[in-house]
Specification:
alpha+beta; eight-stranded mixed beta sheet; rod-shaped
Length: 358
């Protein structure tokens, strides 16, 4: 407030001095003229008064133009730029220092507020960018872990990211378990080096893994040469098993072209209630499925060697099919399951009666 009062006083004094600069010389000059030319007194004084009046108006206009009009125009332009999101790079500091205190004070306040807003916006942008990068990193992490822990596993647990997983997370549901196994793999691997065995398994799995995904299942784990997959639909599980046999023919075609012996696989399916969740300890956890239904599926798969079949399904899977007549099935009664006291009925799936698996 003291600065504003001082500025106004300065403006009044400056204007008064300029008026004196106009009035005093004209009075002196007029007095000299009247003394030398007495008859001019009738017209010289009105002329001097007019000149002084015009001069004072000019002084007032110049002061108004320098201290109010031009600063206000510059202030308005600056406000328009700020409203459009642009901070003026070349601010007329000198112009605003000469301006009326009300204008210069308003200018300084606007600049301070705008700078504060820009800092806040910058902090927000940095925060949003850090949050965006964090989410992208989390997505990348989840996608990377998806190669080890299936996304479907997370979905079934109601999780969106691998970082949300906690030891003991589990869910109870009914699913169809598919086990597949390569026949005589031990003897086959003995004829290959470790590097060749890895290459063989990766080539074989690359043929089978897309089939599981195609039929809306997911692979829970690879157990050596065996595949354990889970399906919500028993029909999709059976269709996947049939497609796996077709893919096996294509895979064997590539092996034959490389002068390698073809392979055979067995597939077993069982439907039942299971617990799907996370087990382990503080420093080592893994996703797994715990259920007698899993053990039964594994035992049924091993019966393919006994019966000389390729696909066997349990009675529970058969009962859960929407249209069993769609498949060519052969019932095998009183099958003995290792570890079970009672025999069970199983079915061999030979082919679709209505066309290819889809």
């Amino acid at each position: 407030m003291k600065l504003s009062g001082f500025s106004r006083t300065t403006m009044v004094i400056s204007s008064f001095i300029w008026m004196l600069v106009i009035i005093v010389p004209t009075l002196i000059i007029t007095t000299i003229i009247v003394n030398h030319v007495p008859h001019s007194v009738s017209w010289i004084w009105p002329l001097v008064a007019f000149i002084q009046f015009v001069g004072c108006i000019v002084v007032v206009f110049i002061q108004f133009d320098r201290r109010i009009r031009k600063p206000l125009e510059a202030f308005q332009t600056m406000l328009e730029n700020i409203s459009e999101g642009f901070m003026p790079e070349d601010v007329p500091e000198e112009l605003f220092r000469r301006a009326d205190p009300v204008v210069s004070d308003a200018y300084r306040n606007v600049i301070q507020i705008n700078q504060m807003m820009l800092r806040n916006v910058d902090h927000l942008e940095k925060g949003f960018e850090e949050e965006r990068l964090g989410k992208l990193r989390q997505i990348e992490l989840t996608e990377a872990y998806g190669r080890f822990v299936p996304h479907e596993f997370l979905d079934n647990l109601g999780k969106t990211s691998i970082v949300d997983i906690r030891l003991g997370d589990h869910v109870r549901m009914q699913m169809t378990v598919l086990f597949s196994d390569i026949r005589a793999f031990t003897a086959l691997s003995e004829s290959m080096s470790p590097e060749e065995t890895f290459a063989f398994l990766n080539a074989y799995m690359s043929y089978m893994e897309p089939i599981v995904k195609k039929h809306h299942g997911f692979i829970d784990k690879f157990i050596g040469d065996a595949i354990m997959a889970l399906f919500h639909s028993p029909d999709e599980a059976v269709n996947a098993a049939l497609d796996m046999l077709e893919q096996l023919q294509e895979f064997n075609g590539t092996r034959t072209a490389q002068d390698s012996l073809p392979i055979d696989i067995g597939i077993g399916l069982n439907t039942g209630t299971l617990m799907l969740g996370i087990v382990g300890g503080k420093h080592r956890m893994e996703s797994t499925v715990v259920s007698d239904a899993v053990n039964v599926a594994s035992r049924i798969e091993s019966l393919n060697k006994l019966y000389g079949t390729q696909i066997l399904i349990s009675q529970s899977t058969y009962a859960a099919l929407h249209n069993p007549a769609r498949y060519s099935l052969r019932k095998i009664e009183h099958a003995v399951i290792e570890g079970k006291q009672n025999t069970i009925n199983i079915h061999e799936v030979i082919q679709l009666t209505g066309g290819e698996a889809s």
